[in-house]
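User: structure tokens for this one?
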Amino acid sequence: MDFEKLDQLKQRLDSFRPLPVEIMRNLHDDLVLRWTYNSNAIEGNTLTLKETRVVLEGITIGGKTLREHLEVINHRETILYVEELARQKEALSEWQIKSLHQLILKKIDDANAGRYRTINVTISGATHRPPDHFRLAEEMAGFISWYKTKGRDLHPVERAALVHADFVKIHPFVDGNGRTSRLLMNLELMKSGFPPAVLPVEKRLAYYEALDTAHTRENYEPFLALIFEVVEQSFEPYWFALGEKA
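Assistant:
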């Protein structure tokens, strides 16, 4: 994986910083919309991109469920929290993970928001079976330990991708693991100065297959290649806003 190419893109973008306030505001609004729409759509939310924008503006869409509206509102709030965590640049912790998840499921499932599951679960359509619930404390402790040791020595994009994949492999919550994993990935990218990467819903099948391959065969290459691609694409809105060629 040519991570040096991503480093060069980051260096090129850094050369334009600080970006004008108007450009940053416009890019941020676009990011929040695309990130929220795609992450929710991957999980089955039926709101379109335009409907998601309207909900973000505070308008209710007829014929759509309360849960779908809350998923949009909660996701935006969680992105803002992730941005604050990224500015602090603290090492990832279980407390941060639970706090993110609590925001994701706020008013949707308060009983399970921010709490590890106490039942066993399966991932629909996946071969991989998450660990038994009584092993979660050990699994999550191991996850954080890896992050603070071996994970620290990896390229930021590889570390972000593996945080994403290994978190989903553990599947510590009853619901909301997918959204949380993508938020955690972007938290890691942002802490290292990379733009947040948005996994498009159009790549949902390839995304699920790459995750299952990583979890069942210990082959992370397809998933790393997918994340590499979406991270590379995450620079494109900046080039457009700056009038630069990609």
